[in-house]
Structure formats: structure tokens, C-alpha cells
Amino acid sequence: MALKTGRGAAAPGFLVMDVIAAANARQAATPPDGPRVLRLEVGQPGTGAPAGAVAAVAAALRDGAPLGYTEALGLPALRARIAAHYRDWYGLSLPMARIAVTFGASGAFPLAFLAAFDPGDRIALAAPFYPPYVNILTALGMRPVIVEAGPETRFQPSVAALDRLDPPPDGLIVASPSNPSGSMLHPDELAALAAWCDARGVRLISDEIYHGLHYAQPLASAAAYSPNTVVINSFSKYFSMTGWRVGWMVLPEDLCRPVERLAQNFFISAPHVSQIAALAAFDCTAELQANVARYRAARAHLVQALPAAGFERIAVPEGAFYLYADIGARSQDSVAFCARMLAEIGVAATPGVDFDRTRGQHFVRFSYCGPLADIHAAVERLASWR
To answer: What is the DSSP letter of 95?
Structure first.
């Protein structure tokens, strides 16, 4: 007799992880003196944790700090420092009680979704989107409502598009800067979406993990526009600490205790050692801003050079470190296109179907957070490849 499996067992994979595996295999099969695979597939900063964060951890280990469980919502010192960060960056006064330190942003999503929604609830989000949003919601029994967005709204949701949903959803997820397009919700647009949600009793979840990585537009946090919003952020991107697995949430008052209870049961706490690193990372501004300068240079080169390399239709990114390219004139199968690009010229990129399951066959995402020399070399290979 076959045993039952739960609905979570049917959750789709995160396709970029398959691309990483394929790129690793391609590199492993390349002779030592052969050309390296150029990694433009994943949002993994090539800079590593800031030196001050590493030094703080080394000091804690050297001094025999008792690295054990912390409070479920994180070290009080780190929560207080995150609250100060909102004062410094956004002019917001937030009590430490509304800050939750999490096991990365990835650990924050299920906590937020479970605290805010019930199975069967409808959660709207714009396509293209970060794939785990939909996959986690589906595994939890919630219903993603996909709002197709295009270049006319910079691949972001609009109030007009949400007004066409009948009935209104129970929640809305936004991301600014976004993955995969690098577009941003401008302050007036974010304010309008927050007001729309509050007027209709819709819970807003704002993914702000790429804050700090912006090039022209000013930053705006949804926490400034509604006390009912859940804001999710991370030390992975601007702070360049992907492997440390530490993030945070700004919570509405009514969700603070529910999230704390869930965190106690799901994760106990974020890693203590990572929280020590995160606290120190706030004092590494010069190093972190130097990273942003490198991303800015890589972005400028791709925006200038990719059209000449055969990628004429690109969304110019306002933030993050991704560029979303329309390959419809060259291929109707982005998975096959990326596989051929990796096999033939050793450039790894992510197929658009990871981010948009209806139109993504026509798109490819390039990540430009690796070494600047690799970005230049990748463009040279692309220019000679058709």
C-alpha cells in the first residue's frame, strides 16, 4: 500500500539552484587550464562578509563567548541596532519590540505567511516574482494570485491592476528593488499600494532585502506608510553575508507575539554567531559602499554592452544586481537557451521561467554581483555567440 505524501512534497524546485548545479558540473569537467565558467546566474555577492563582521566573530570565538540559543526574536543588541538603522536610513522611529531577527529572509517568509494568513487565503503578487514566494505559499495551502506586470509598470504591481481583482486578495507581496528585474517601487507608488491595502484590509508583505543596492531612485520602506505592513530584510545582499543565514522583520504590533511563538517552534533562533557578525556589519559602511560602487560599474557596463551583444531588449535596473533581458527574438525556450549558453560559451544565467511561468520562456536573468572582470569577460563571450 502506497504511503501518503503531503502537499509540500509537490512544491516545485527553485530552478536557479539547478543552474548552479549545472554550472558546477561544467566547471568540474573543465581542464585546469581551460576557460572558467562565468557565474551570472545567482545573487551571491562575490565580496564575502565585511571584514569587521568576520573580526567580531573571530574575537567572540577567541574569547570563548557562549554561542548558544538566543531569544527567539534575536539578540536584544542586534534588534536595537536594526531599529536604529531605520532611524538612520529612513527617519523612522521603531520600537525594538517590533523587530524580529530571523533565519535569513527565507526563514522570515513562512513565519510571516503563517502569522498573517490561513490556508485558502489569496495572496497577490506581480509576475515576474521571486519563485519561493509562490512555492512557500502553495506548500502552506495558500493561493497565489498572479498579477502580470510588464515594462509599462517596470514589472511592478499597480493600484489599477489590483483594482481589477475581484474579490480583493487577503494579502499582497511587493519587492523593491525586485528580483529578477531590479526595478523599484518609487515612494509615491509604494505609498499608494500601502494605502490601497489598508483601505481594503489587505495585509502587505514588503520584501526589502535589496535595500542599499540602488543607483538613482531614493529608497522608501513600506514601514513608513502603514503600521500594518510586514517588512522583510536580510544581511545577505547589501551586507554580503549570504551563507550566514540571518535576516530580520519589522512586524505590526498584532503579529509580534504570533511570530515569536512560531519562531520558537520552527527555528528556536537565528544562529548566535551570525547575529554577532550582523551586529558588527552595521559599522562597515565604507566597505559595503565600495561593493555598491562595483555593482554600479557592472550594471553600467551591461546596460551599455549587452544590446551590442544581441540582447537589445533589456529592463534597465534601478536597484539590486540583476538585469532582465527579453530574448524573444532569439529563442522561445529560455531553459534551452541558458543550457546552450552554458554548454557552448561557459556563461551561466537563469531562465526567466523561474520567475514567470507564463511569459518567462522569453526572458533571461543576468546577475552582476560577481567580480567586475567576469562581467566584462562574459559580455565578450556573448558578443561572439549567436
So the answer is: -
The dihedral over CA atoms of 12, 241, 105, 14, expressed in degrees to the nearest 10, equals -10
Alpha carbons within 13 angstroms on the beta-carbon side of residue 69 total 9
* Contact status, residue 272 vs residue 70, Cβ threshold 8 Å: yes
The residue among 376, 353, 377 whose CA lies nearest residue 364 is 353
Rounded to 5 degrees, φ, ψ at 21 are -60, -40
Q: With contact defined as beta carbons under 8 Å apart, do 112 and 132 qualify?
A: no
Q: pLDDT digits over 69-122, tens only?
A: 999 999 999 999 999 999 999 999 999 999 999 999 999 999 999 999 999 999
Q: Is the peptide bond before 151 cis (omega within 30 degrees of 0)?
A: no
**Measured between alpha carbons, how far is 231 from 310 in angstroms, rounded to an integer?**
38
Question: pTM here?
Answer: 0.95
Quick: pLDDT tens for 280-309: 999 999 999 999 999 999 999 999 999 999
Q: Which residues contact 174 (CB under 8 A, 6 or more apart)?
A: 125, 126, 156, 157, 185, 190, 193, 204, 205, 206, 207, 222
DSSP 122-174: EEEEEES--HHHHHHHHHTT-EEEEEE--GGGTT---HHHHHT-SSPPSEEEE
| DSSP state for residue 319 in the 8-state scheme | B
Domains of the chain: 13-42+286-383 (3.90.1150.10), 51-283 (3.40.640.10)
Q: Exposure of 69 by Cβ count < 10 A (0-12 exposed, 13-18 middle, 19+ buried)?
A: exposed
Q: Which residues are within 8 A (CB) of 165 and not within 5 positions of it... i.e. 6 or more apart?
A: 124, 145, 147
Rg over alpha carbons for the chain, rounded to the nearest Å, is: 21
Q: What separation, in Å, do the N-terminal and C-terminal C-alpha atoms of the chain show?
A: 52
- 35 is written with which cell numbers? 576557460
Distance CA 102, CA 111 (A): 9
